[in-house]
């Protein structure tokens, strides 16, 4: 699931609005809602959403993306209903076009989650397989970052 207009759902306090003031050709303006341009916006948004979802079993989020899981359909549906209630209580809105339900597996931040467990996204593995041999230290670092991301799925990676 995905939240509609992520950061913009969070209203700024009166004191915070003053520090977002900027100049335009028609005078001074300030934000009333959290903006993408604020340096700490990602951290503020993540903390706010994590707090809103705290205590919900089978619910995880990264930024504005949320997943719900359960061992059975009934457990999943109960957890989904609890999530909807919590989202409503916190005045948040989901992006209906980006929400998907009752999936047997899903891609979430470079990993595939299914009833069989967690695996590397095949696209990430293909990117590693199709990478040219690193030619300099910068390319070696880039390659190591790519392999480290899916490293727990690669046998003997540390050897």
TrEMBL record:
<protein>
    <recommendedName>
        <fullName>Reverse transcriptase domain-containing protein</fullName>
    </recommendedName>
</protein>
<dbReference type="InterPro" id="IPR043128">
    <property type="entry name" value="Rev_trsase/Diguanyl_cyclase"/>
</dbReference>
<dbReference type="Pfam" id="PF00078">
    <property type="entry name" value="RVT_1"/>
</dbReference>
<dbReference type="InterPro" id="IPR000477">
    <property type="entry name" value="RT_dom"/>
</dbReference>
<feature type="domain" description="Reverse transcriptase">
    <location>
        <begin position="1"/>
        <end position="113"/>
    </location>
</feature>
<dbReference type="InterPro" id="IPR043502">
    <property type="entry name" value="DNA/RNA_pol_sf"/>
</dbReference>
<dbReference type="InterPro" id="IPR050951">
    <property type="entry name" value="Retrovirus_Pol_polyprotein"/>
</dbReference>
């Amino acid at each position: 699931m995905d939240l509609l207009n992520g950061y913009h759902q969070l209203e700024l306090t009166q004191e915070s609005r003053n520090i977002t003031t900027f100049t335009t050709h028609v005078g001074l303006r300030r934000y009333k809602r959290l903006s993408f341009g604020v340096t700490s916006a990602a951290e503020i948004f993540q903390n706010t959403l994590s707090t809103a979802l705290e205590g919900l079993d089978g619910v995880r989020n990264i930024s504005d993306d949320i997943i719900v899981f359960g061992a059975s359909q009934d457990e999943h549906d109960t957890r989904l209903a609890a999530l909807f209630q919590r989202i409503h209580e916190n005045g948040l809105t989901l992006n209906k076009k980006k929400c998907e339900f009752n999936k047997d597996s899903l891609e979430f931040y470079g990993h595939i989650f299914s009833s069989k467990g967690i695996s590397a996204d095949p696209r990430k593995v293909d990117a590693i397989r199709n990478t040219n041999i690193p030619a300099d230290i910068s390319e070696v670092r880039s390659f190591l970052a790519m392999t480290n991301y899916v490293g727990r799925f690669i046998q003997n990676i540390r050897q």
